[in-house]
Design goal:
mainly beta, Lipocalin, ten-stranded antiparallel beta barrel, 73% strand
């Protein structure tokens, strides 16, 4: 299975000393079954997200989601409810050590699409950088008659 899908993403970053930063994006992408109960969702980032030239891929495997970015920005983030994962986040200006502490995660993604919700805290060099909320809806792209 490798379906063209429409992906709606809503992101919210909450910082201690400023107002929340919110972002919404609707883009085309692909949904692929990777194995029993495992799915991948991929899409091209845009200028709107500040990650133009980067491909984002989410690997959903039960209670674990791995976000991989490749291109102008290279990173890998692992989300697992109640767990903290460390990784490196490469930017054009250098690499940062980031910690991802997932407070809550819910996924209903299957062959027909679905929803993915992740609430997590992000640490940069062991300092809390903010709280984040990520919401994604995946729908099969209907084929229009010619």
């Amino acid at each position: 299975m490798n379906d063209n899908v429409i992906i709606s993403i809503k992101g919210k970053q909450i910082y201690a000393e400023s107002s929340p930063d919110e972002m919404e994006l609707v883009t085309a992408g692909t949904l692929k079954r990777e194995g029993r109960g495992k799915y991948s969702i991929s899409y091209q980032e845009s200028e709107l997200t500040g990650l133009e030239g980067t491909t984002t891929k989410l690997l959903i495997d039960g209670g674990r989601v791995t976000l991989v970015r490749e291109g102008n920005i290279n990173s890998q983030m692992v989300f697992e409810e109640g767990r903290r994962h460390l990784s490196m986040y490469e930017t054009p200006y250098g690499a940062l050590s980031i910690g991802v502490n997932t407070r809550r995660m819910r996924s209903t993604v299957d062959e027909g699409g679905g929803d993915l919700e992740i609430d997590y805290a992000l640490e940069i060099d062991n300092l809390l950088a903010g709280q984040n909320q990520f919401r994604m809806n995946v729908k099969k792209n209907p084929v229009l008659p010619q």
